[in-house]
Amino acid sequence: MFLRTALLVLRKDAAIEAKSWEVLTTTVFFAVSAVLVFSFAFVKEGEPLEDAAAGILWIAVAFSGTLALGRTFERERYAETLRALLLAPAPRPALYVGKLLGILLVLGIAELLLTPLVALLFHAALFARPALMAALLVTGTAGFACVGTLFAAMLVRARSRDVLLPILLYPITIPVIIAGVRGTSALLASPPDEATAVMWIGILTAFDVVFVTLSLWAFEPLMTD
Amino acid sequence: MKRLFAPLLVTVAVLFVAAPYFIAEAPYESTMGLVQKIFYFHVPSWMAMYTAIAVCALGSAVFLFKNNKTADAYAVAGAEVAVLFGLMGLVSGPLWGRKAWGVWWQWDVRLTTALLMELIFVACLLVRKYGGPGSEKLAAATALFGGATAPFVYKSVDIWRTVHPKTSVVPELLKGSMPGSGLPFALSAIGFVLLATLLMMVRVNLAKRQMALDELYLDYEE
Predict the structure, then answer these.
(1) Chain A contact for B149 (CB, 8 A cutoff)
(2) Tens digits of residue pLDDT in B56-84
(3) What per-residue confidence (pLDDT) applies to B173?
């Protein structure tokens, strides 16, 4: 029941997305523009600064993730469909998980494009240890998205939600971004520092566990009027 | 306010009479000298902040799950006092760091996470102020996450290698690692935590009165 509801919500979001491509195209385009903006700051005389790639990758993910979160829930607000979802006789945490999976899917696709782009433009060896890099991206994105989904869902009802989402989201998720950046730059070192990267993946997993538990726990009372 | 007179008197006595005298009498630390005495204000500020965070997070959790309005009053009070004492810690830290490390700010794990923790509670207050109706719940959720990061911040110095001293400094000091400084430190710590508690009690009182007033307005309009 729980898993089926979550998958149904995911399928609904995917079906809407497949018709309009709105969130995916805007997110990917924004991520690419963010990378270009960073290139002005971190490229000196045609050579990118050392270690810049890790930071650029993660900040692009965080920025475009905020955009995707805002858009996904703006759509739910438009025709009060979030209220309709909440009225459904389904466990509320399952709705949360469904929305979270949708966001993760969008961010995952964006990262699939973003990572090679950053690797290419900033001469970064992001694919030296593909498995560890993937683990970093998965755990980091999950930590960012699970807090983001909770706060974006709550903010649907609030005034000035566009401003409040980053204000609330960044202070809480910066530890995740820091862990992602440190882990990635450990992998970028030559030779790649695997032990450090694994340590950061462990910390990210700890964050994920704490954040997902708190979000699942708090979603029900937060979404009740 | 009359009920608070006696505890207030104790706080004033500890903070403004006993602690300054004993801090002045405390010995100079061998390498840092006089600046080390910021310690007697810096660490107690953070202790007061952790107390306020605990009150805020507990209040928020009870408010969220039991929908208890009084708990919300504790959450506001905790958040405001946490921001206040966090600010004191963030100001006194760099003053000490400038002398001890030669720089005002060092981006090590403890300093960065402490700044983040302060930002989380500032965000909590911002949401409450500008979020419109229903923002108390948002603020409560933010406080819950803030409360979850607090232990990470506290333990960060033991996990990572940082320039900031470890958490073991305080218990060692109280056991007498630096003779003559245990008592002034204990007095400052008690004074700061007492002050934070008093401020929170006053703020809770104010919040309760605001709630009562709001209810009266609603009744009057009906």
Answers:
(1) yes
(2) 999 999 999 988 889 999 999 999 999 99
(3) 82
pTM for this predicted structure: 0.86
For an interface test with B, give the residue of A174, A182, A200, A213 to mutate (most B CBs within 10 A). A174
Residue type, B134: G
* Per-residue H/E/C for A146-214: HHHHHHHHHHCCCCCHHHHHHHHHHHHHHHHHHHHHHHHHHHHCCCCCHHHHHHHHHHHHHHHHHHHHH
How large is the angle between the packed helices B135-159 and A130-155, nearest 10 degrees? 150
With CA atoms as reference, the chain B residue closest to A168 would be: B123
Q: Crossing angle for the helix pair A2-20 and A22-42, nearest 10 degrees?
A: 80
Q: CA B71, CA B75: separation in Å to the nearest integer?
A: 6
Q: Is the pLDDT of residue A134 over 80?
A: yes
Residue B82 contacts residue B125 (beta carbons within 8 Å): no
Query: So where are chain A's domains?
Result: 2-222
Q: What is the CA radius of gyration of chain B?
A: 19
Q: Give the domain ranges of chain B.
A: 9-221
By C-alpha distance, the chain B residue nearest A160 is B131
When pLDDT is averaged across residues A105-120 and rounded to a whole number, the result is: 92
- Strand pairing class (A47-48; A43-44): antiparallel
- Determine, for residues A168 and B138 on separate chains, whether the beta-carbon distance falls below 8 Å: yes
Mean pLDDT in residue range B167-174: 84
- Longest CA pairwise span in chain B (Å): 70
Total count of residues recorded for chain A: 225
Gap between the Cα atoms of B74 and B17, Å rounded = 30
Residue by residue, DSSP assigns B159-204 as HS--SSPPTTHHHHHHHTSSTT-HHHHHHHHHHHHHHHHHHHHHHH
Confidence of residue B1 (pLDDT cuts 50, 70, 90): low
SS3 of A129, please? Answer: coil
Torsion of CA A46, A51, A54, A56, to 10 degrees: -40
Our CA-based measurement puts residue B133 at a distance from the nearest CA of chain A, in whole angstroms, of: 7
Chain A residue closest in CA terms to B148? A210
A-chain residues near B123 (CB < 8 A): 167-168, 171
